Amino acid sequence: MKLNIAKTRVVSYTRNTNFLSYEYQLCHAIITRTSSIKDLGVFFDSKLHFHTHVNYIFSECLKLLGLIRSNTYRFSSLESLYVLYFTLIRSKLEYASVVWNSITSTDANKLERIQQKFASICFYRFLPHISYNYTDALEKLSLQSLHKRRHHLDAHFLVQVFRGLKSCAFLLENVSLRVPPSNLRDISLFGVCPSARCAYAANAGGKNLDIFAIGRVSVSDTEPKIVKNIC
Question: In this predicted structure, what is the pLDDT of residue 183?
């Protein structure tokens, strides 16, 4: 297989300030070194902070939201706006979120601003008699915050891994299930050592999540849960 040198890059994934920077060659040509690279639609930076990816999807979704806003001012149906938002914008905001959901709170708030703008458009057009507040708007519009949806998508992926629907041996090796004694109040599902804070974060996906129940995982409610299949 021949490699295209013009499309080949070298990235060193580390958070150390000083790291070994070696000039790799291919066919006697030095391969260009970069701090960020796009792979399957996700920008991976050298420190895996995903700032570049967040900035990219924020810019793209902001343009799409402006396009929707300017071309739908005569729409009389809120459902039509939902279809456009879910299809063109939210799908981009959640694409491969399991990979990059370790972003900082600053980046998470930046992405949330996209949905805040969409909610304000819906409110001022269809509910002008109600004062706008983002938290109340989510309830009125039957939406979830993007942060909560990403959290539920993570839980959904974890359930699929434990059920064998997704292949991720590394995750199975590093996530252990807890079987606490019946007389303890702590019913956390996952055991993560050595940090208690890590254990809390690992179990924040939903206390009532049953990964072994028959059915599919729903991410549409406030807590991820198993929805029974009704035949």
Answer: 58
